[in-house]
Amino acid sequence: MATQLLFYENAKMVTAKEHGDISVRTGQSYEFTRKVNSVPLTAIEFTAAAAHYPVVFAGTEDKVMPAVILGVSENENLFLEEGGGWKKGTYIPAFVRRYPFVFSTDKDGKNFILNIDESFDGCNREGRGERLFDSDGAQTVYLQNILRFLQEYQGQFRRTEAFCERLKNLKLLKPMQAQFNMPDGARRSLSGFQAIDRDALKALSDEDLRRMFDTDELECAYLHLFSMRHFQTMIQRMGDGSAVPADDATPDADDASDSAASEAEEA
After folding, report:
1. What is the pLDDT of residue 23?
2. pTM score
3. Compositional bias of type Acidic residues: which residue ranges (predicted)?
4. 124-149: b or e for each residue (b if 16 or more CB lie within 10 Å)?
5. Contact 71, 122 (CB under 8 A)
6. Residue 151 and residue 136: Cα distance in Å, rounded?
């Protein structure tokens, strides 16, 4: 994740004056994710996401957050189909589903402000999709639902921060690297993320394990570890899908990288 907001290009505060005649049509195309190989994830999404993607931890030395891996190369989303559709039957992360909307905070950092990426192809003044405001300038039901969705997302984000902070305090995370053998014989690696150390997890005290169990964090930890097996099949999504993943296409701690991808939270 090279930039904080990934595919957001022109996020502007939503107002009735500026967006009173704006309509938004979403869910038709996810072309905006084509050059993104990972997106942030909240802990509540682990159950759904772990069935389809490798779930890892990315960020900085001071702060890490979960993310799903979408591609082997830096600017690659292997789950995006021809025409911009998302692979059918595959869970779409909330970070993707909330686009083109995103919260920012005011100068005091106490209040959230709704923004919309005006560069999104689905934003229009031709009445395609859902209006944000009615003819009287009042919020539509659609806009109210968007606000509720983003408020819930923000709450889950905060809870996920607490989960990641516990992982760091318990020293459970370590740098990892995934390696792949390509059909042409070339070798490719994907680094810049962290994973939970199984041995460190097993060595936790009964008290720490109980605390993680009571908060569902232990379940998230094992869902993350389960999801790592998806690295073995990602190579099959490249080209015509005939490639066979390398035996060592799973994360390799010995070739660890200390770099970490950045994480996106707010505008």
Report:
1. 97
2. 0.83
3. 249-267
4. eeeeebbbbbeeeeebeeebeebbee
5. no
6. 25
